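Hey team,

Filing this mostly as a record. A colleague (T.K.) asked me to run one chain through the structure pipeline before their review meeting, and I want the input and output archived in the tracker in case anyone asks later how it was produced. No errors, nothing strange. Just documentation.

Input sequence:
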Amino acid sequence: MAVLSACLACWMARAEEATIAWDPPSDAAGVVGYRLHFGTATRAYSISTNVGSATSFVVRNLSPGVRYYFAATSLNSAGTESLYSTEISYFVLERLPEIPALASAYVTQNVPSAEIPIELSPGMSNGWTLTARSANTAVIADNGLSLGGANFSRTLVITPETGALGQSVITLELTNGERTNTASFRAFVSLPNLAPVVSAGTNATILTNATFMLRGRVTDDGLPLVPGGVSSSWAKVSGPGTVTFGNSNFVVTTARFSSAGIYRLRLTSTDGELTATADTVIRVHVAVDFTPPVISDYVVTEVTDTTVTLAWLTNEMADEQVQYTEDLGDTRNTLLNPVPRLDHTVVVTGLNPSTTYTFVAKSRDTTYNRTNSDPITLSTLFTAAASMAVAQSSP
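Output structure:
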């Protein structure tokens, strides 16, 4: 019977499998197949497998950290088995444990962080050591990195240097003395976070048919760094009817009230960690006047190259504003003068010389009834500079 000798080889070995190959015997007459034997002790094979006429075989599911021994035999048609070939061994390396990708850490000045979980590869054997080091020891020293836990469930607590502010790159290193794996993340040390400062504006008295402008105000220190900003929202705390907000997530927004009564509205702001609130009280009265004011004697009192002065009267106390439209251009409004009066004068400024505009007077009484005048169309005057430019452009 032909005997396999000095022919066994291991190739394409991976962490938990190995391909074992051999050469046929020099006298292969009568050989119909091969058998591979292996185990964890030399020449004491606990596993044998027929591989047919193939001269290689992939052995899988090997245990990490264990040395295996292999030998092959040949078989003839009668099933007679040859002596063992020469023996080879293969040490199965342990898989390189993985360190998870860690998000940036945010630490408060002079305060240790909460425990940061570090989940290593499950099933990791003993002999692996996890260490941590800091790239900027002035902010976070190496001895300010405290590792805890055991096996593949570890933790890290970051204690910044006293009074330090800034950032550092923290590198975790896992090694068994032969192989090493590392992972890094950034740690930020910032001042203690303060809650947002919130104002809901002054209390007010309005009418049921009015749209009221809520003028809230929020300031913040920009901490914590994530999210690095505040989010706000308005809500009704109490009141007899419903409140419809223009956009309840805007600090400055509008509100309408369905019925008369006293309403308490609350502006709430959070920086993701701390929350602050402020309230305003709105007294809503029933509107009894639904008749808008009457505009009369609407006239132009002065025209220059860049301004137009308009005047008008109202039959009841009302505010004043002018809407003006440039010929084939945009429509704009002057600033609203909210002080109620009977006689009104508005100077429209910032106009273009020698340009046609249309002007409409607008007034609103104390119960928020609004009216508009008929339009007045006119042209502003030439300036000397404009006249010179026209003259220079003439042939």
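Quick notes for T.K.: Residues 38 and 70 are 4 Å apart (CA to CA). Residues 384-393 form the longest helix (10 residues).
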